[in-house]
Specification:
CATH architecture: Orthogonal Bundle
Structural class: mainly alpha
Helix content: 55-70%
Largest sheet: 3 strands, antiparallel
Strand order of the largest sheet: 1-3-2
Number of helices: 4
Radius of gyration: 21 Å
Order of helices and strands: EHHEEHH
CATH topology: Multidrug-efflux Transporter Regulator, Chain: A, Domain 2
Number of strands: 3
CATH class: Mainly Alpha
Number of domains: 1
Distance between the termini: 74 Å
Length: 118
Amino acid sequence: MLEPSNNNELPAIPSKRYFTIGEVSDLCAVKPHVLRYWEQEFSQLKPIKRRGNRRYYQRQDVILIRQIRSLLYEHGFTIGGAKQRLQGETAQPDRQHNQQMIRELREELEAVLEILKP
């Protein structure tokens, strides 16, 4: 297994649609039982299950696993801290978008108010 500081030395992700748990294990330097555990802990990680509950991961799953690995092994986050960090990253753009929409709506309402003033 690679040392925690060597995350950028992980192999490149091949351009294919689905990866088996063994392939993802090799690509991310994480054992299969750890991947199965992370599926239970991180709601964002949902591989497709087919025939006999075989897991098939997509490219975005592999990228997410590498992010989780980096947070846990390189940055020293706990599972709970990594969950919060990942949820915060997905919530941040939504929050900024909502604030922008509120600003635009306020400006439009103020313009309507100016038109309606006698």
